[in-house]
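Here we describe the complex-level prediction in full. Unlike the single-chain runs in Section 2.1, the two entities below were treated as one system.
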Amino acid sequence: MNQIYTSETINDMPQRYRANFINSLSGYKSANLIGTCNGSRHTNLAIVTSVFHVGANPPLMGMLMRPHTVTRDTLENIKEQGYFTINAVPVNLYAQAHQTSARYTPEQSEFDHCGFTSHWQDDFAAPFVAESPMAIGLRLETIQKIEANQTELVIGRIERVLLREQAVEEDGTIDISQLSLACVSGLDTYHQASGIAKMAYAKPDKAPTALKLFNTDQ
Amino acid sequence: MNQIYTSETINDMPQRYRANFINSLSGYKSANLIGTCNGSRHTNLAIVTSVFHVGANPPLMGMLMRPHTVTRDTLENIKEQGYFTINAVPVNLYAQAHQTSARYTPEQSEFDHCGFTSHWQDDFAAPFVAESPMAIGLRLETIQKIEANQTELVIGRIERVLLREQAVEEDGTIDISQLSLACVSGLDTYHQASGIAKMAYAKPDKAPTALKLFNTDQ
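The structure predicted for the assembly as a whole is:
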């Protein structure tokens, strides 16, 4: 290892520098746009990189939100309406997706200002992003305070999934490499990904085995 | 959209199929090996894809763990010792990293059986993975139960960061594209990533602007 950072080094970092450094440590994250609306169906859209899997049965997803940042409107809409959407960002729209992190006024919808189209599904109470190849509709399950730093963990139950491509494999896995999704590192760096391999269930007495190798030259 | 999945469709999926499907919805995730030991310094290593950023000040990272899966030893070691490491998986070692998900007995260390080298830092009470280009040493801060499905959210405070490359930018961001890290989707599919752009802080009255464009042909 070439560089070692101790608690002291980290504590001594200027605030913004430390935010960039620490945010980079979690590696590649999925880029998602959170779609919400208020009681008048006025829409809001915010990029969030803290979405994660919580459980498959019941089907739950979570995201961590800081109450005093730009996602405040998102959090208020979710609390008020009880519904939200998680829309995976396609690679070709990463710049517009990043633009939703600007501090627009509550009267301005990021859908209009950042070039996204709201898509309403008849009875579902939050807007989907029409441009997203993988969009999820969720009903709020709980909001739990993280004791360690008072951020809020929003957990939603998956009620609807919209997929653009026939990307579901025989075993239920979605081959997201077909969907050209962006991923993010740190606060502002966007990446594209390409598949390497789908691995077999690992067993102690068996060497690691690929079920499928992707063509990495594609 | 070509395919719509409703709550009913999802509920009707066979258990394993649903696990694969729901696990795919969170998109690209970072691939990390969690290094722990027991009181006799007997080591354990487990791949985890639920690591996420919790906060920069104090510097906190979290991961979600299911008590009854293969990561049970990891969780017990963390509770017992109060320390663990998060080691980013390099692309060339994705197959070995996946192999740590096999159900080895508590007497077998995944370091030995999957081909990783434990690296001890003098006074730090958990083993790092020598092969990882970005390794983080954490002290257990809290374990919080997720009410919605009784999984456990482990939150650690970052006490040490080991970086192989001089990859830290002027603003503190770690250019992880220099580290050749793997990412994961679903339960078993590995990907590599390549940088697109680092974006400027977004403002409502400014078009999205790249601070840096990566060479995508590299």
